[in-house]
Amino acid sequence: MRAYPRIRFMGSKYRLAPRLAEVFASLPPGPAIDAFSGSGVVAYTLKASGREVLANDMLVFTSTLAEALVANADEQLTDADVARICSPSRDGRDFIASTFDGLYFPPSDHAFLDSAWSHIDELEGAKRALALSALCLAAAQKQPRGVFTVTTPRYDDGRRQLRMSLQELFVEAVGRCNAAVIPGRARARCGDVFDVNEPAAVAYLDPPYAPPRDDTCYVKRYHFLEGLATYWRGQEIMWETRTRKLAKRHTPFASKRTAPDALDRLFDHFRAADALVVSYGSNAAISGDELEALIGRHRRSVERIELEHRYAFGTHATAQRRAATEYVFVGR
User: Fold this and answer.
1) SS3 118
2) Sign of CA dihedral 102, 161, 61, 283
């Protein structure tokens, strides 16, 4: 689990993965589903424990991470692959350089992303997913706080990655991705959670947490990575926005008005699983008691585990205010 590449991702369970591994070990053996796989670290944890895993997420870039690092059992990028991706452009494309000129990264970094994509377009399968994952990891590392809601350097915290080129960060990221590849049976898919219909001993559910204020729109925060994973093909760019955002995608889990019904439907959808493991935060609009009651509608027994957690990087005052209790409910 320590080998899994870390990415600054809203709601990531990287720090909680060891504790979740203990929970999974207490449950019936058999295949598992990570229905909202996000950064992929929990699906990877399930795979590392010996379970067959299905990782699902609605975002392309997170599903690509799962394809490269969870579903992939033995493929790696070679030095020759990396040299080719880092070589001059195959076709002179400049979509990223022209679309994001003056935003996020220097012109040389944008040119590298265009050039890298010209070679990645010739890759297939796990190698393609690995290369795109490394590109996304590099871009997330160089963007302060890892989100693409701002275009200025005001959050520059002095990390060395902010001084490195994206090509240098890409090469480092390839090494981390290659090192994380482990044998085992796993699959990755990109789609709506209610289209997942697989038998499972364990269904792990980590839906977006409906906040009291603001929102949990992952597309708003990670639109550049979502576009980068697809070269913006099939994506709707909001050209009128300064940040070149992608159109928002509705999810009923993100609103305190629609979340209770959506969660009730979710727990019913996975009623055939031997056990449900549900993650949720105490700083959400839905209380732990409400969530426990919803799970209890579909399970004979519900155990609540409370873990102290902080959904932020850093030690600044805002980060400290984001300290919360992570609820882990186990429904049998």
Assistant:
1) helix
2) negative
